[in-house]
Structure formats: C-alpha cells, structure tokens
Amino acid sequence: MNFSDLKKCDAYSTVYFGQYMIPNGTKPMSTFVIMPIEWIVAEIDEKNNRALLISKYAVDWEGYADCPILYTSYKTSWDESYLRKWLNGEFYYDNFSSDEKNMIIPVYNSAKNSNEKRTIDKIFLLSKDEVSKYFHSESDAVLLLPMVDLVDSDDGKHELNHITYPKIDWWTRTSGKTNDEVVCVNTRGRFVDMGSGCDEVGVRPALWVKLH
Asked: Of 30, 38, 121, which is closest to residue 83 (Cα–Cα)?
C-alpha cells in the first residue's frame, strides 16, 4: 500500500510495513519463516502528517525486564525495560528497510499515561490508557500469535504447511500495582498485572509513520 493513501483509510484498515521471522511451531526453533508485519491503522493525524500503526499480531514473546534468573521479577520501568531497548534496537534495525526507517517518527511517550519517565521512542508499547482508546471492546484487544508449521519438501528444503494463531497475553508499558509488575492484556482482552520477568507474554509494537 502507498502510505500517501493512509489518509483514505478507515479505522482498523491494515497495511504491511517491515518484516519479521515467525518461529516454527513444530520443528526446532532454528527454523523460521520471514513474514511481512501487518499493522492496524489506529489513528490518522493529518494535522501532524502522521499515522499510528499497531501490530495486528504478536511479533514475538519476551520478558518485559531482562531478569537474571528465569521467571523471576524485579522492579522495572518502561524507560529502563528490556523491551524498550529491544524494540528500539534489534527489532528496529533488523526488520525495516532504510526507506521504512526514514518513515518512522520518533515520539515522546508521556509519563502521565505510563506512570514512568518521559521517553523518546521510535517503536513503543501502548500504555493502558492507549489500549482503552484504540480498542473499543475487550474482543478487539485480543492478540493472536502466528505460529508456522513447516514440512520438508522432496529437495530437503522447508516449505510452509500452514499458520496457526493461538491467543496470547500481551504487554503494555504501564506499571502494575506492585514494583515488579506490569499491566498486560490477557487472552480475554482484559487488563491484568503480570510479573515483569515472565517471558511468555506477547509483544505488540506500535509506531508513528509519515503519511507522505
């Protein structure tokens, strides 16, 4: 899709932007399929010549904090979180072309919504308030995780058999009620607090792009 046409999009139209590797659900984790990232057009801001994109599916599952011991949690915040570093580092650099990177607009994320220090991010997680703003029902907020099934072809190469879409909890950037918890959206689309060290929670990135 031509991004100059984003102004014509209806709410919840989808566009493809960037690509990422989906892990194989039935084979060793060393095998992947590269897929385009599908995004929901959540907001068109013509005044500032930009559009907000939210990923339609989970791009990965990761811990919010980089905990030294698996499944442990400790005090963390969006500005210091592992996920913020990963989204604005490895995820940003590996999954977008040079032209796509030039279209991404760094934005301030207000501490008012996320209960944390103000940050400047190219890629970010939605706050709890933003989830409520852009998803108008619990069912709209439910996130699916693409998992591919690869089969071996006659020539020994992996071929895509099918993709399944199980539901998965997903992170916001808003702190939970205790120091080591973060607000998540569960598989019913409801807000729950999750320990920051849990590494089986989906990542649903968001970003602002130039309209033209």
From this structure: 121
